[in-house]
Amino acid sequence: MHAPSRFLLPLGLSLILAAAAAAEVSYYAAPEVSAAFAKGAVLYAKPGVDYMVHASRREAPGQAEVHVQDADVIYVLDGSATFVTGGTAVEPHEVAPGEIRGREIQGGETRTLAKGDVIIVPAGTPHWFKAVKPPLLYYVVKVR
User: Fold this and answer.
1) Cα–Cα distance for residue pair 118/79, rounded to 1 Å
2) H/E element holding 80?
3) CA–CA dist 139, 127 (Å, integer)
4) What are 9-61's pLDDT values in tens digits?
5) CA distances from 29 to 33, 54, 125 (A)
6) Is residue 34 a contact partner of residue 122, using CB atoms and an 8 Å limit?
7) Which of 66, 94, 106, 112 is the most buried (most CB within 10 A)?
């Protein structure tokens, strides 16, 4: 007698694999990615999915940011920036639910980000591109 040709998996693992098999694969060809970086744009975002991918571009410093629910995984492709994490946002105000902006950050840790660097900013952590050597191109994977 031959053993069954498929494996028996615990119910939980079977459900996870079934959900993964049903997920849609997203592909972006180089011209579409380049166009997104040319203006800075959201590359991937879908309702019900707990992550987003941004093709980000900065020509100048920005406001201090705090994402109450989202962690940012940042990978720098080109350019450099002075990046501050932690500390306290100055003059904070909510611009959308769970999205806080401020003029700058007092305190915190300052780093220089450059091509090839990765930094992970946990949800709720103030962060700020204090200075930018343009163009600064970077992927941001926002994870909820």
Assistant:
1) 13
2) strand 71-85
3) 16
4) 677 776 666 666 667 899 999 999 999 999 999 999 999 999 999 999 999 99
5) 6, 15, 33
6) no
7) 66
* Coil, strand or helix at 108: coil
Could you check whether the bond before residue 134 is cis, i.e. omega within 30 degrees of 0? Answer: no
- Given a cut of 60, whether residue 2 has pLDDT beyond it is no
For residue 43, what are its two tokens? Answer: 């590359």
**Predicted TM-score of the model (pTM):** 0.84
d(CA 19, CA 50): 14
| 94 touches 46 (CB < 8 A) | no
Burial pattern 81-97, b for ≥16 Cβ within 10 A else e, equals bebbbebebeeeeeeee
Confidence (pLDDT) at 9 = 63
The CATH number that domain 63-144 falls under is 2.60.120
In order of 25, 71, 77, 134, 142, the CA distances from 32 in angstroms are 16, 25, 16, 21, 20
- 88-90 and 127-143: which strand pairing? unpaired
**First-to-last C-alpha distance (Å) of the chain:** 49
Task: Report domain extents, the chain.
Answer: 63-144
The residue type at 44: Y
